[in-house]
Design brief:
By secondary structure, this protein is an all-alpha fold. The chain has two domains: 37 residues; 97 residues, Helix Hairpins. The chain is built from six helices and no strands. Helix 3 crosses helix 4. It starts with a helix and ends with a helix.
């Protein structure tokens, strides 16, 4: 329960702070129909479920992951850590329950890194120049990645150490 509340806070806080920081015109206004009220804009965009729309969503998500993997140096470190965790698990022949913990930890870190990258990109769009308030938002998002990486390392230690101790 606490984890869900913290994750919600990490997701919502940067967006709320950015909205509060900038009261000038919306930098994303080019995406909105300025002549229509927001409620009508949202109603006009609401479309029923279609397979084609879901496939487009998957394509957009894949494009985002490719961008993350190609452009973020920290993602390269996460990729190396992911490979090391998988390699260690294979070498130690860990069981299925332990694989679930490793998979959860890896996905947790990758999700945090993706969200951090999105927050940083939004901050750079909204405030291209130096701004102490935006720096704080970016630092909080980076702190979320740090917490997830420490948590993943802890999960890795709790998972792998008994196998290593048993092997010796």
């Amino acid at each position: 329960m606490t984890c869900c509340a913290l994750l919600s806070l990490i997701l919502v806080l940067p967006i709320w702070l950015i909205a509060r920081l900038r009261s000038r015109s919306n930098p994303l206004a080019w995406r909105l129909e300025a002549s229509l009220p927001l409620r009508q804009q949202l109603a006009a965009r609401r479309v029923g479920f279609t397979v084609a729309a879901r496939l487009r969503s998957l394509r957009h998500g894949g494009r985002g992951l490719l961008f993350l993997a190609r452009s973020e140096h920290n993602a390269w470190l996460h990729l190396a850590a992911t490979a090391a965790a998988i390699g260690t698990g294979l070498a130690l022949r860990i069981d299925g329950v332990d694989w679930r913990w490793i998979a959860a930890a890896v996905l947790w870190v990758w999700s945090a890194e993706a969200l951090n990258t999105a927050v940083e990109r939004i901050c750079n769009l909204v405030s291209p120049g130096p701004d102490e308030r935006v720096r704080i938002v970016k630092d909080v998002a980076a702190g979320g990645v740090l917490v997830s990486a420490i948590g993943a390392a802890t999960i890795g230690a709790f998972t792998f150490l008994p196998y290593i101790a048993h092997a010796h």
